[in-house]
């Protein structure tokens, strides 16, 4: 199958591209033009189409000869609601319309557990809007609402390790730290995405997936502290104060570890059935404590400082 991947240079995208190619698919990734060298997955044959999602003609050209789309691109990392609206919402509308015109046979969209157009949180509203575009597009689609993805170079456990390393003996939890998440190892997620794209029975449906555990934020922080060797005292910080702190960090630091969207994400439980991957794919997901080896022995304080002078990473 010939597959166009948006967000193919991002944390999840790099794993997905590798899995698709290993499964025998031809992959083209959509890259937004820019001055920086893209972080393409190393050692894999991949085609490149240069266009932003808002570039209708560029998207149409990128879809020529393609049979399927895996849509992963997002501006969540920016913490900017205007950019979220432009890329995630309006850009996805362009993609859905172009896919319908191009006769694309399947679109797979990676959404979030908790996506809802009536949600109080911008990211969850944006994901739900994209889901609606796909359902209305007439293109066969599969929507995977996923739990929090983690792995090497992720945007949660790795920044968390950096933040712990530079914290002065204590670390602030958002709220009471008891909201439940269902972390999913990125390799399990990439496997699920690849298999879902190949499975006709999963078309035109929304599926919720996650890892094998419901863990509180406090439990996840403790696992990360153990893995990276940075023990800290934990204290609770109410969401308004956490949001204010992240706003200040965003103005003092070139690349803060987290943005305000994380406060939204951690505010409520983000879970689904624990047997989702075995039931849908026959896949037994990894436990989080067994897949944090990439945090062992890292110089995370140094990495945090280096982050402030590095070029902006791809989505």
What does this structure look like?
With 315 residues, the protein is an alpha/beta fold. The chain folds into 2 domains: 2-147 and 185-209, Rossmann fold (3-Layer(aba) Sandwich); 157-180 and 212-307, UDP-galactose 4-epimerase, domain 1 (Alpha-Beta Complex). The protein has 11 helices and 13 strands. It has helices at 11-22, 56-63, 81-102, 122-137, 157-166, 186-198, 217-228, 239-252, 261-265, 276-281, 300-307, and strands spanning 2-6, 26-31, 47-50, 68-71, 106-112, 141-146, 149-150, 170-174, 180-181, 184-185, 205-209, 215-216, 233-237. The strands form 4 sheets. It has a 7-stranded parallel sheet, with helices on both faces. It has a two-stranded parallel ribbon with strand order 7-10. Strands 8-13 form a two-stranded parallel sheet. β1, α1 and β2 (26-31) form a beta-alpha-beta unit. The model has no long low-confidence stretch (mean pLDDT 91).
Descriptive terms for the model:
11 helices; seven-stranded parallel β-sheet; UDP-galactose 4-epimerase, domain 1; Rossmann fold; 315 residues; 40% helix
Strand content: 15-25%
The CATH architecture term of the largest domain is 3-Layer(aba) Sandwich
Largest sheet at a glance?
7 strands, parallel
Give helix and strand order, one letter per element, not per position.
EHEEHEHEHEEHEEEHEEHEHHHH
**Average pLDDT for all residues:** 91
For the record, the count of structural domains works out to 2
What's the CATH first level of the largest domain? Alpha Beta
The CATH topology label of the largest domain is: Rossmann fold
Multimeric status of the protein: single chain
Structural class: alpha/beta
Helix content: 40-55%
SS element count, helices: 11
Terminal Cα span: 25 Å
Low-confidence stretches: none
CATH homologous superfamily classification of the largest domain:
NAD(P)-binding Rossmann-like Domain
Number of strands: 13
Shape designation = globular
Strand order in the sheet with the most strands = 3-2-1-4-5-6-11
The value of Rg in angstroms is 19 Å
